[in-house]
Amino acid sequence: MRLTSRIRGPEHHVTIPAHDPLRIGTLSQSLGDVATYLEISREELGKTLFG
User: Fold this and answer.
1) How far is CA 29 from CA 14, 48, in A?
2) What is the pLDDT of residues 8-45, one digit of tens each?
3) Residue 35 · residue 42 · CB < 8 Å
4) Coil, strand or helix: which one is 42?
5) Contacts of 17 (CB under 8 A, 6+ apart)
6) What's the pLDDT score for residue 37?
7) Which of 36, 45, 48 is nearest to 8 (CA)?
8) How far apart are CA 38 and CA 46, in angstroms?
């Protein structure tokens, strides 16, 4: 799955593999990429996504 964001201006793409189950390291890397793009911490992103 490829996700695209334009929130910060230029397009940012993140590819999430369709593995079942998704490895924790893969999820961690994807969340880190998104947090870096949004210029927030991974912890802040986690709170926003997962409450």
Assistant:
1) 10, 17
2) 888 999 998 888 898 999 989 999 999 999 999 999 99
3) yes
4) helix
5) 1, 26
6) 92
7) 36
8) 12
